[in-house]
Amino acid sequence: MARKKQYIESDVVERAMNLFWKNGYETTSMQMLEKEMGINKFSIYSSFGNKHGLFLESLKCYKSKTKSLFEDFKNGSNGVHDIKDFFYKSVALSLKEGNHKGCFVTNTFNEFSEKEDEIINEQMSAFMDNLKQIIIEKLKTDTTKDEAIITKQANYLVLAKHGLAAASRVNTKEEIDDYIEMIFDNI
Amino acid sequence: MARKKQYIESDVVERAMNLFWKNGYETTSMQMLEKEMGINKFSIYSSFGNKHGLFLESLKCYKSKTKSLFEDFKNGSNGVHDIKDFFYKSVALSLKEGNHKGCFVTNTFNEFSEKEDEIINEQMSAFMDNLKQIIIEKLKTDTTKDEAIITKQANYLVLAKHGLAAASRVNTKEEIDDYIEMIFDNI
DNA sequence: ATATTTTCTAAACGTTCGTTTAGTTATTGT
DNA sequence: ACAATAACTAAACGAACGTTTAGAAAATAT
């Protein structure tokens, strides 16, 4: 046998995620990753194959980090109010540690929207579809709404959430709170 | 005297703008610009100094292209309805020629939000402030609204517009129309 | 027609990118 | 203790980036 790794993969991948989250895929260089992860290129490549592989692991890491957020959202029993809660909690997460970096998935969605990366794009679509489906379920708890209005409101809320994620990178807490309150005034 | 330029600057800068608009600043390389503009690097540098200078000219070009849109918006006399009109026309512009490329200013705003480019960031802020101010004026035509509600609605609409610009890059016409209609249901 | 001036072509510049590789160091089983 | 093996360091790889430059081509004033 031989030497063991001097780092824990789940630990360094979280550091990588934070960098990707803040700067996006292209802007984050291997040099920056070396520094932030505290290991050198050889180790990164031997653990994750290449930059793209590391990015995919970072996305996984983000998903597991936000898993409880989604679980709470899904398991809630307060219909529309759960959606609003989810919006507020999402913003709080993206503003953690005083950093304005939005939602990692939304950032990725935007950055890759014009590229032709099947793996990433498929994951992004799945993520968005999943969100939309949960929202639809929540809206359906109000049995007075017909299917047409539910579809319309779901489209509205998914896009509002998308805009919210972008906004949380650049806008003030006050502007964002105004935004969320207004979003739900007509739901 | 000597040879004259074999291209018209305003013409090639519009081609550059289209490329920047579609791909963003970083992703657009000088090589791509050469090809799209139909002139070579020497000519680009002699006309615009550097890539950044060319980008600034592209932003100017976009502003002049959207000037009439803003003029109509500002000069309208239908209050909130003018805002809705503006939203619809903005989406139509960004979908022109079948391309999904959103709003050039919003794209730039997002791409540069984490960078420290004073010139660009100042222009972006000015653009957004201007938009917000016009929206406030439109909202004020409804004299039943107090200042607090106007501020809140203005914040909401600016962010909604921001989200709309992002959405127009990836969402269907139907989803976007649903979105716009819902935005104005509670104004 | 020629000298002058500017544009154009095309190659090269120095950096940085993501990635690979040769060689050293450390840890383990025997 | 020693051989084996994996992880480490650090340098180098080719390609692409934004930018510059030397020389050829073209258009004007005299």
What does this structure look like?
2 copies of one chain form a homodimer. Chain A is mostly helical and 187 residues long. The first copy, chain A, has 2 domains: 54 residues, Orthogonal Bundle (Arc Repressor Mutant, subunit A); 121 residues, Tetracycline Repressor, domain 2. Chain A has 10 helices and no strands. In chain A, α1 crosses α4 and α8 packs across α9. The longest helix of chain A has 24 residues. The model of chain A has no long low-confidence stretch (mean pLDDT 92). The structure holds a DNA duplex (30 and 30 nucleotides).
Note the total helix count of chain A. 10
Mean pLDDT rating of chain A: 92
Helix content of chain A: over 70%
Largest interface: A-B, 36 and 36 residues
Report the top-level CATH class of the largest domain in chain A. Answer: Mainly Alpha
